[in-house]
Amino acid sequence: MSRADMPAVHFVMPGGVDDPAAPSGGNVYDRRICRELPGAGWQVHEHAIAGGWPQPGPAARAELARLLSELADGSVVLLDGLVACGLPYVIVPQAERLRLAVLVHLPLGDETGLAPGRAADLEALEGRTLRSVRAVVATSDWAARRLVDRHRLARGRVHVAAPGADIAPLATGSDDGSRLLCVASVTPRKAQHRLAEALADVADLPWECDCVGGLGQDPGYVARLRELTEKYGIGDRLRLAGPRTGAELDASYAAADLMVLTSYAETYGMAVTEALARGIPVLATAVGGVPEAVGHAPDGSVPGLLVAPDDPGALTAALRRWLGEPGTRHRLTAAARERRAALAGWETTTEHLAGALEQLRQEPRRAA
Fold it and tell me: What is residue 55's predicted lDDT score, i.e. its pLDDT?
């Protein structure tokens, strides 16, 4: 099929999707989908709109409204949920005329640090948006169930396209399992302060930990985290490395023995599968879609340790097991290497998303 014969999708994303200073799982997912969809038979027209999503200023709201109003009737449009979910008064009026799908990376109300009233407001806005569009794409089975239950959506309109993973060379790590890695933006939702507290409790054991991720989203939290590491005397062992991409990020993974993720909320947790794709086991809080991402090796073994998010003692105990028990390290690393071979790639993600878009394209036109 020539490009001219391919169906087209307009993909509306937040501005900054390629900003190396603020990498995120959502941005990586969006960019990868743009790259892969043509191979699945879809032309992609990219529209990145700068703004303080999901609560943008007037200029960004006007730009989104203008873009949608200028698209031809019946156009297939995929909107990143960060752009769409908080603006039903822009989305709903176009939902009859356009074939709209919303890709939800994280339900708006799940962001940590929101005042209860604001979280409820965002949840209500999101519900109005998602109930108006023809299709919703979630990035995990857990997220799909949550959206269906929370917003009373028809299950047949909610599709799952979980992030893929690129198999990479096995990490070399160290002999004693002491090299820990956390890949996540430094924000309250990712909860690196819990990691700092747990590491302080095992300061008698050998370890070093690099926290790789953007530092600009919540400078106040970053400052408090630095103060905490100094208070516990671990500032030279728990390092805030800032964002890394490309070869620099690959080198961080290659040197790691264990991925640690202590988030309060995760729709999936792409850093988990990025680690497993290198045979690195995972220690993570069992929130959202993280257990789904960790998964199982073909023999049923779990390639990591999952702990309750509200049990700091469990996190400390898991770290002590990893650092103090060579047998545990050997078992989990073996399971991670087995899981590595079974990970789904981005072609599976693209296949599922392309199927959702094709179903959307084939739907009868709604009456005006």
Answer: 86
337 with 356, same domain: the answer is: no
pLDDT score for 130: 97
Range of the domain at 315: 179-342
Beta strand ranges found along 92-195 (DSSP E): 99-104, 135-138, 158-160, 179-183
Distances (CA, A) of 7 to 3, 37, 94, 131, 362: 9, 11, 20, 25, 11
pTM: 0.92
Quick one: 159 and 183 in the same domain? no
What sign has the CA pseudo-torsion 22, 26, 32, 37? negative
Taking a C-beta distance cutoff of 8 angstroms, is the pair 126, 147 a contact? no
Q: What is the mean pLDDT of residues 110-118?
A: 76
Q: Helix crossing, 192-201 with 312-324: angle to 10°?
A: 60
Cα–Cα nearest to 98, from 86, 111, 112, 84: 84
Write out the two tokens for 19. 């900003």
The backbone torsions φ and ψ at residue 178, rounded to the nearest 5 degrees and listed phi first, read: -85, -5
- 332: which 2 tokens? 């989990």
The number of distinct structural domains making up the chain is 2
Residue 24, CA distances (Å) to 28, 79, 105, 252 in order: 6, 17, 11, 16
Distances 320 to 13, 203, 237, 364 between C-alpha atoms, Å = 42, 10, 16, 58
* 356 and 325 co-located in one domain: no
- Contact residues for 64 (Cβ-Cβ < 8 A; gap 6+): 12, 49, 56, 83, 87, 90
User: H helices within 38-191, ranges in order?
Assistant: 58-70, 81-84, 88-91, 116-132, 141-151
